[in-house]
Amino acid sequence: MKVDVLLGLQWGDEGKGKVVDVLTPKYDLITRFQGGPNAGHTLEFNEIKHVLHTIPSGIFRDDKINVIGNGVVIDPVIFKKEIEGIKGLGIDLSKSLFISKKAHLILPSHRILDAASEAAKGKSKIGSTLKGIGPTYMDKTGRNGLRVGDINSNFKEKYELLVAKHRQMLDKFYEFDYDIAEYEAEWFEGIKVLSEFQHIDSEQFLNDALKEDKSILAEGAQGTLLDIDFGSYPFVTSSNTVCAGACTGLGVAPNRIGNVIGIFKAYCTRVGMGPFPTELFDEDGQKLRDNGNEYGSTTGRPRRCGWLDLVSLKYSIMINGVTELTMMKSDVMDDFESVKICTSYKVNGQEVAHVPYEMTEDIEPVYTEFKGWKTDMTAMTHENEFPEEFNAYIDFIEKETGVPVKVVSVGPNRAQTIDRMID
Ligand code: GDP
Ligand code: IMO
Ligand code: MG
């Protein structure tokens, strides 16, 4: 069997958690391959609304194995809270959740370093979630990091050594005031909870599962435009959020990748700083924010909103090799008189149809306008019910991208998901 990869094509928060939960019944294993608690993946079903940060979104379905892969970074404090939250819903994860020994740990001092780094950047700060993601991946690539597999051997010693390095950086480089001790007790409590789960050689585990004909869904975090290589650098996260990240973050070979499911909102949002060519500062932008409840699942920050950007969408499809699209949150635009899609950029007066090296603030979007569908789509269950204007919107996206929109989401609930009948 193959590994299908589901990932965000914009700046995160596309609705990945919801779709993973919807698709989970089709798979044997669900895995996370990168990122950490900077992610907030929301699931809604029955009367439950739940946000996951580190744990894969397959966790609410019976008989499924969920694996936190080697590419993920874990904060034991947040992990403990997540486990307690899920336990509170009567779900026991001890047999269904496995953690890679090679996943790196976010230390309290990583979080402090993140805050120090952002403070030092001043006006040009990234707008990080301040979860310690950047400093933890820096220690990984700098070959200093602590991994889950280290917990059982001289752990305290290794921990102290790394913290001593961090203290030097905070004192000498950042001159930042901090109190690591404040967080340490909670962190070691988290380590205890983490120790109760099975730590595995996840690359072996997953490849064995593939050999046994098990199917795997890899759940991306963040979005392609936040990728460390292909996003709007430096306003990005510190991992490879793209499809290739599933290979390195799980230890599966590229020829093991099957379908690549690209998730996008019918418009765009971004939280944090950085370029956003189609951002709206007018009442349409506010309406998208209000209708879509566009406030961060992890930080509560208002999300910046704008029209759908086909230039960057096509770029994301290209980088990831997307085989099918899922369009989210179309219901948010149900009451718009008209809606727009950006089809090219104007840079220094020249029209360009690709993402330029410099994603500067000076990019002027060129739009195609569509009539709004002015229909409440939230109770629809079949594509036959779609209004003509909505079909025109999807047809345009499919024609421009050359990729079928196989699924349309018309509300946050698991049930509000419509499969389109495309071969
Ligand atoms: P993720 O990080 O990609 O998993 O997305 P988030 O959970 O951060 O943000 C998506 C938000 O949109 C969540 O609050 C979801 O409950 C909500 N959502 C998902 N799909 C839909 C949809 O089709 N319509 C509406 N109105 N909300 C949705
Ligand atoms: P999910 O998985 C949206 C953004 C932050 C900031 C930049 C760097 O829920 O889609 P970091 O904490 O990684 O140093 O932040 O990336 N960011 C996200 N935006 N959704 C996310 O995850 C994000 N994870 C990070 O806002 O701009
Ligand atoms: Mg999110």
From TrEMBL:
Q: Which PROSITE patterns match?
A: ADENYLOSUCCIN_SYN_1, ADENYLOSUCCIN_SYN_2
> Which positions in this protein are listed as binding IMP?
13-16, 38-41, 129, 143, 222, 237, 301
One GO cellular component assignment for this chain's record is: cytoplasm
Q: Which reaction does it catalyse?
A: IMP + L-aspartate + GTP = N(6)-(1,2-dicarboxyethyl)-AMP + GDP + phosphate + 2 H(+)
Which positions does UniProt annotate for substrate binding? 297-303
Q: Which residues form the signal peptide?
A: none
Q: In which pathway does it act?
A: Purine metabolism; AMP biosynthesis via de novo pathway; AMP from IMP: step 1/2
Supply one GO BP term: IMP metabolic process
- Positions binding Mg(2+) in this chain are 13, 40
Q: Cite the InterPro entries for this sequence.
A: Adenylosuccin_syn_GTP-bd, Adenylosuccin_syn_Lys_AS, Adenylosuccinate_synth_dom1, Adenylosuccinate_synth_dom2, Adenylosuccinate_synth_dom3, Adenylosuccinate_synthetase, P-loop_NTPase
Family annotation (CDD domains): AdSS
Q: Where in the cell is it found?
A: Cytoplasm
* EC number per UniProt: 6.3.4.4
Q: Which family does it belong to?
A: Belongs to the adenylosuccinate synthetase family.
State the protein's name.
Answer: Adenylosuccinate synthetase
Q: Which organism is it from?
A: Marinifilum breve
